[in-house]
C-alpha cells in the first residue's frame, strides 16, 4: 500500500518558462541562442541546483564562456524568478493526495536562490510534509544518493512511495530502490496514472 507521494517540482508543479523568458529579455536571436547554450544547455545550471558554488562562482562561469554578454547574463540571472509560474492545479493536486491520507513530500533539483526569488510560486510547500531540495543536500537527481537521503531522512519504505517526475531517467533511478513512479508528461496523464497506481498498490 502506498502511503507517501514524492513530487518533483520543476514542470510538475511549477513551470520554468525559460525559452519565453529569454525571448523577453534578449531581442537578438543569435545572442539569445549563445546565452541559452551557456546558461541553460551547458550543464552549468546544474551547479546552481547543486548548491555548492556561490552565486558569484556560477556567474563567473557564465561570463567566462561569453564575456561579451556579461551585462545581459547578469540581468537574466537577477530576474530569473519571473520565468517561474506555479501550475494552476498544483495546490489542488496536493490537497487531493493529502485527503487520501497520504504523506506528501517533494524531491526536486532546485536552487535556494530561485525559491527565495519567487515565494509566491512555491506557496504549495506550506501544504507539504517536507522534502529534499538538491541545493540543501548538494546532490542532484538521478544520483542514487539523493533518493537514499530522502528515504532515510523521512524514514520511508521505498515500496510504499510514489514518485512523480517529468524526467524518465529520474524515474528509472527511483525504480531501482523499489519506488513506484509516474513519468509526468501532462497533468491529465500523470494524474490518471497516479490514480491507477494508488488504487492498485
Folded structure, characterized:
This is HAD family phosphatase. InterPro entries: HAD-SF_hydro_IA (IPR006439). By secondary structure, the chain is of the alpha/beta class. It has two domains: 125 residues, Rossmann fold (3-Layer(aba) Sandwich), CATH 3.40.50; 68 residues. 48% of the residues lie in helices and 14% in strands.
Top-tier CATH class of the largest domain: Alpha Beta
Question: Stretches where pLDDT falls below 50 for ≥5 residues?
Answer: none
Strand tally is 7
Beta-strand percentage range: 5-15%
Q: What class, by secondary structure content?
A: alpha/beta
Oligomer: single chain
CATH superfamily of the largest domain: HAD superfamily/HAD-like
How many helix segments? 11
Question: Can I get a quick summary?
Answer:
The chain is α/β, with parallel strands linked by helices and 201 residues long. The chain has helices spanning 18-25, 29-39, 45-50, 55-65, 70-78, 90-99, 112-117, 134-137, 144-153, 168-175, 187-200, and strands spanning 4-7, 14-16, 84-86, 103-108, 131-133, 161-165, 180-183.
Amino acid at each position: 500500500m502506498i502511503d507517501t507521494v514524492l513530487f518533483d517540482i520543476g514542470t510538475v508543479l511549477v513551470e520554468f518558462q525559460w525559452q519565453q523568458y529569454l525571448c523577453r529579455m534578449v531581442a537578438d536571436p543569435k545572442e539569445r541562442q549563445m546565452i541559452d547554450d551557456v546558461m541553460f544547455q551547458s550543464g552549468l545550471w546544474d551547479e546552481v541546483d547543486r548548491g555548492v558554488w556561490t552565486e558569484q562562482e556560477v556567474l563567473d562561469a557564465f561570463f567566462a564562456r561569453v564575456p561579451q554578454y556579461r551585462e545581459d547574463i547578469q540581468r537574466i540571472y537577477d530576474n530569473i524568478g519571473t520565468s517561474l509560474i506555479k501550475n494552476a492545479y498544483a495546490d489542488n493536486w496536493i490537497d487531493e493526495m493529502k485527503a487520501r491520507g497520504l504523506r506528501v513530500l517533494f524531491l526536486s533539483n532546485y536552487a535556494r536562490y530561485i525559491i527565495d526569488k519567487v515565494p509566491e510560486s512555491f506557496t504549495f510547500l506550506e501544504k507539504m510534509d517536507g522534502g529534499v531540495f538538491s541545493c540543501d543536500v548538494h546532490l542532484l537527481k538521478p544520483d542514487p544518493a539523493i533518493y537514499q537521503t530522502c528515504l532515510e531522512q523521512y524514514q520511508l519504505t521505498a515500496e510504499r512511495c510514489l514518485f512523480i517526475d517529468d524526467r524518465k531517467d529520474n524515474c528509472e533511478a527511483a525504480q531501482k530502490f523499489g519506488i513506484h513512479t509516474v513519468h509526468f508528461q501532462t497533468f491529465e496523464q500523470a494524474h490518471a496514472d497516479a490514480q491507477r497506481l494508488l488504487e492498485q498498490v
